[in-house]
Amino acid sequence: MSEQPRDESSHDETHRRTIPVRRAVCPGSFDPVTNGHLDIIGRAANLYDELVVAVFVNRSKSGLFTVDERIAMLEEVTADLPNVRVDSFRGLTVDYCKAHDIHVIIKGLRAVSDFDYELQMAQMNRGLAGVDTLFMPTNPEYSFLASSLVKDIAGWGGDVSNLVPQTVLKRLIERTRGS
Ligand code: PNS
C-alpha cells in the first residue's frame, strides 16, 4: 500500500490554529528607556511570540518625559524587533494583562536589592489574577543602571552616552539643557 503524501500546508494550518500565542508584557515607567531595559526587552522578545512593552501612566508622578515621548522612544529603539509592540496603560498591570490575554509579566532584576519588592509584587499579581512573573537577571554590564540615575547625571551635564540608546541621549540632552 502506498503512503499518501502528507499535506504539509493543511497540517501547518491546524498546528498554527491549536497552539495559543505566547504573549508577555514588560511593564515599567521607561522614563526614559535605557540600555538595561533594551537588553531585557530583546531577550524577552526571543522567548515569546509577542512582547508588549507597556508604559505605566502614573497618576502621582509626572516624569521627565511625557508618556507619548516615552512611547515614541521605545518604538524607535525596538523598531528592529518585529514581535515587540509598545503600549501604555493606567491602572493595575494585572488588569492590563486580563484585557489583552497576557499571562506572563517580565521583570529585569539588577541586584538582590530589587528582589524583595519585585517578589512582593509578583506574589501579589499572582494572587490577584493568577498572572505569573518571570524574572530575568540583567546583563551585569547594566546592573547599576537606572533611569533616575541617568536623568540626574544628564541633568548635571554628565556623560550617559553608553547607558542609553542614541535617540534617547539626544532627547535627554535637549530636555535637560534647559533646566
Ligand atoms: O519602571 P518601574 O517604575 O520600576 O515600573 C513599576 C511598575 C509600573 C511595573 C509597577 O509600579 C506597576 O506594575 N504599576 C502598575 C500598578 C499596579 O499594578 N500596582 C500593583 C502592583 S502589585
Main traits of this protein?
single chain, 179 residues, alpha/beta, five-stranded parallel sheet, disordered N terminus, binds 4'-phosphopantetheine
Give the names of the bound compounds: 4'-phosphopantetheine
Spatially, the strands of the biggest sheet line up as: 3-2-1-4-5
Topology order in helix (H) and strand (E) letters: HEHEHEHEHEHH
Strand content: 15-25%
Name the assembly state.
single chain
Number of strands: 5
Helix content: 40-55%
- What count of helical segments does DSSP give? 7
Gyration radius, to the nearest Å?
Answer: 19 Å
Shape: globular
**pLDDT averaged residue by residue:** 91
- Contiguous low-pLDDT stretches (5 residues minimum) are 1-6
Characterise this structure.
The protein is α/β, with parallel strands linked by helices and 179 residues long. 45% of the residues lie in helices and 17% in strands. The model is unreliable at 1-6 (pLDDT under 50). The structure holds 4'-phosphopantetheine.
